Amino acid sequence: MSNTRTETATLLALTFVVSFCSFAYEFVYSELLTVMYGGTVTQYVITVGLYFFSLGIGAALSDDLNAEDRGENFFKTEVLLAAAAPAGFLLVVALNSVRIPPAVPSELIWFAARLPVVVVGFLSGFELPLLTYLVDGLGEEDAATPAWLRRFGSRVHDAVVRCLGVVWTVKRNDGRRSGLSVVLAMDYVGGLFGAIVYAKALYPGLGLIPTIFVLALLNALAALVFVVRFGDWSPTPFATSTPLVGRVPKALLVVCLLLTATYAGVVANHETVDDQLSELYLEQQIEDEYRPGTMRAEVTSQETTKYQHVIRYRRTWTGSGPNPHFTGRSEQCLRLDAAVQMCDSWADSYHNGLVDVPMSMFERGPETEVLVIGGGDWVAVDHLRQYGVTVDQVDLDARFMNRTKNEPFFRRWHDDAYRYDRLNVTVGDGYRYLQQTNETYDLILLDVPGATDDELLTLYSEEFYRSVRRHLSDDGVVVTWAYSPDGYPEHNKAFLNTVGAAGFTQHLPYWAWEDVDSDGEVERVERFHVFAPGERRSLPVADGTDYVRRHSDRYRDAQWRPVPRYNGVRVNSIFHPNYDILVDT
């Protein structure tokens, strides 16, 4: 009896572990597909739907597995899961690391990227029925539970039954629980723990790549524990008991051992593996808007903060570049998540456009109040410091802000601007800050990344711009970088509709200019908008900032215009996001 209780307890513990892994796998795939293709809601909904669909198919087909080899089939299932889950992860990464010929249908790529979800769900569908049969075969599932846990569970069960009795007719079942009910309970608890541990520990603490190998290692260990505890290890055929697992194929056992050892090594060196795989992927993806062979990229450093993936890299133009002046040129760049934030060749011109152009419209002194939302690299603050204005800055990522204070790449551009004596810094969410503060500002600068994922859509929403408008002074304006209408026409329409719906009636679009390739001719670099909820003074040129006067021929004709309204393009709202158009994937 004692041995049977131990065996049952082991099976229930394995149920918990495999359920933990199965649910966590789907969260990993959901996040991975979001990173690769954008659309958090879309990816999570489709992934969960496909998972439960394939889970049901697997469960339905589990009865067709040989009833006499259920133990061996469970072992095979766990080994296959341990192998398939990381392989599927790497497949999705590979699909986004190579240039796929245009002739390949996009529907085929869509299906291939989600095939790992189906495979993991299908294999997971075998687990629960197989474990239920195994536990029922032992017949000691109640006895295997510790006494204190049985007492606690009994009290909780009594309380729940009394609640059910308010609506339904119930009868307390004091008999032995079926194997199905006990295994289901452990399965649900394992799934809950899988979700919590993934969200609170694995993903934020390790990242996606190490997490998938941690889960695969648990799967492989579960398979090993099962086969060691329940396998047929007797030296003679005259064993006193019948094992749950017959003599497993030696090749399969070797595969399981190799997987376990490999994953253990990966987990032990997870930081190195994470960096190498991430760099391999990123170096294929960075600057992929250029044609193949135009540019070579090398990741020099990367880290994941609580809020974003910070990537530093060096890019070098090859002989096939768009301009002969570029050939052989090398420069450092900063990338936040999927958006290129700053490169040596245009770091200054970007901030000239963001700060120096609109500052031509205001007094240059402490009486001018400026709010910077974002700008954790401190470069915008450095430009504002030149005009002696009062600056409030709100940025979400304290870790990134602290890192940029001392790194040479950033110090070159911000010149220790974080020490500016008229600067007040708040670490927090810009939208929430606007909801809580009573301050008004003459100039609000949005130094934020492009809309590369759903989490950034708040900064492109009608609600956010309404909050911005409420905190402008009588003559105040807001300035933001914007996607070009030439390259992103639908995004531009949706963005302008959103800003207009928030109450901004006038806008002044303009470009930042720079001689990027040092050929003596200035080129337009980045596009910006000044938005206002009413009439404002025109952009002064003769008495503007040094930058505006230097490019006076480019800004002399800049005019305020009514914010256009485009038919058939939906406004972006927090509760009704327009991510299919706004998110840049």
UniProtKB/TrEMBL annotation:
E.C. numbers = 2.5.1.16
Catalytic activities: S-adenosyl 3-(methylsulfanyl)propylamine + putrescine = S-methyl-5'-thioadenosine + spermidine + H(+)
Active site annotated at which positions? 447 (proton acceptor)
What UniProt keywords apply to this chain's record, in alphabetical order? Cell membrane, Membrane, Polyamine biosynthesis, Spermidine biosynthesis, Transferase, Transmembrane, Transmembrane helix
> Which CDD domains does the entry mention?
AdoMet_MTases
* One of the GO biological process terms: spermidine biosynthetic process
Q: What residues does the PABS domain cover?
A: 274-533
Q: How does it sit in the membrane?
A: Multi-pass membrane protein
Question: PROSITE patterns, alphabetically?
Answer: PABS_2
Q: Where is the major localization of this protein?
A: membrane
- Membrane-crossing segments per the record: 40-62, 74-96, 108-126, 180-199, 205-230, 251-268
The record's PANTHER family line, in alphabetical order, gives: THERMOSPERMINE SYNTHASE ACAULIS5
* Assembly with partners or alone: Homodimer or homotetramer.
Outline what the protein does.
Catalyzes the irreversible transfer of a propylamine group from the amino donor S-adenosylmethioninamine (decarboxy-AdoMet) to putrescine (1,4-diaminobutane) to yield spermidine.
Q: What is this protein called?
A: Polyamine aminopropyltransferase
What is the organism field in this record?
Halopelagius fulvigenes
